Amino acid sequence: MRLNVENMHCQHCVRAITAALQALDPNASVQVDLSKGEVRAEGNFSAEAAIRALAEENYPARLLDD
């Protein structure tokens, strides 16, 4: 899935976002593109669960069409 994520600015953000999604699935693949404000994630979780997990870390997100 591809998500547009707000409030991402630095490597701390990358680590926090990766940790939030890998808390849902420890084997999840997470790629963060700070310049585009996008996250690509593949794992055993729904888009809704990913968006909720990111919102809890203060990173509002929305699903983008691929």
TrEMBL record:
Residues annotated as domain HMA: 1-62
Cross-referenced InterPro entries: Heavy-metal-associated_CS (IPR017969), HMA_dom (IPR006121), HMA_dom_sf (IPR036163)
GO molecular function terms listed in the Swiss-Prot or TrEMBL record: metal ion binding
Record's keyword terms, sorted: Metal-binding
Family matches, as PROSITE patterns: HMA_1, HMA_2
The keyword Cell wall biogenesis/degradation is annotated on this UniProt entry: no
Alphabetical list of Pfam families matching this protein: HMA
Keyword flag Metal-binding: yes
Entry superkingdom: Bacteria
Protein name (Swiss-Prot/TrEMBL): Copper chaperone
Source organism (scientific name): Thermomonas hydrothermalis
